[in-house]
């Protein structure tokens, strides 16, 4: 009974050490990846293609997007849409699109 029990204990310890070695390697990989992270673009920053899309939006498209994202109330959306449509019909395109939306 003694030698079989010792063999099981030794195998259990070896399995535990192997598991610790794997965990250590995985931890080192995560740490290396985290150290390289400042060189990458975080997911929270806007993508370059998203920025270019918004820069080519017309003022009405920008207004609709802001309304869809919940930035504007129904009244604010309608008021600004009316202002944009009125300025387009009068030919008042001298103002910047950002000024028309404020």
TrEMBL record:
Q: Where is this region: Disordered?
A: 40-62, 83-102
Q: Which residues form the signal peptide?
A: none
Q: Residue limits of the SHOCT domain?
A: 58-85
Cross-referenced InterPro entries: SHOCT
Which chain positions lie within coiled-coil regions?
Answer: none
Q: Which domain of life is it from?
A: Archaea
Q: In which residue ranges is the amino acid composition biased (Basic and acidic residues)? A: 92-102
Q: What is this protein called?
A: SHOCT domain-containing protein
Task: Tell me the organism.
Answer: Haloferax mucosum ATCC BAA-1512
List the taxonomic lineage. Answer: Archaea, Methanobacteriati, Methanobacteriota, Stenosarchaea group, Halobacteria
